[in-house]
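As a warm-up, study this chain.
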Amino acid sequence: MNTLTKVTISLALGITLSACDSSNEPIPGTGNSTNTTANPSSDCTTITRGPLGANETAATIPASIATTYQLTYSESAAGSGIADGKTTEFIVSTDGSLTVDAGTEDCVTLVDPVLYLGNTHEAIWFDSDAGVQYALSSLETGFNEINVGTDTHYDQTGFTFYGQYR
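Now compare it with the structure written out below.
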């Protein structure tokens, strides 16, 4: 083969680049994760929320926070079913999905995130099967945390803040 043919073949195969730190893990917030589409595992259960409720608008997930995160749970109140200190993989996707416990038998993909009472910093997903919500902040200033509470809004009767993943 001549040099031009070799170059053409190499270009046709494609090159994938991603931002990584020294541990060779994706850097959160770079948007360079390979797992930014819904339901990355065929074993995940997908949970949809349905129509918007009172004071809710649909949330849009910016590419700047769409990536895979390894986060550790810090419990504030009992009742979530999540062990204090548990490390969990979250996949945040621009298509609006949040995958929790990716790659495990407990994997769930949540869709239909909402903003509540005009708060544009926090996208909220509801896991009706587990009875919890995951509230990711911040959509505007970059990833900070994922708060966990009951599957009702914070100003509604029965809401409990369980803790957060950081």
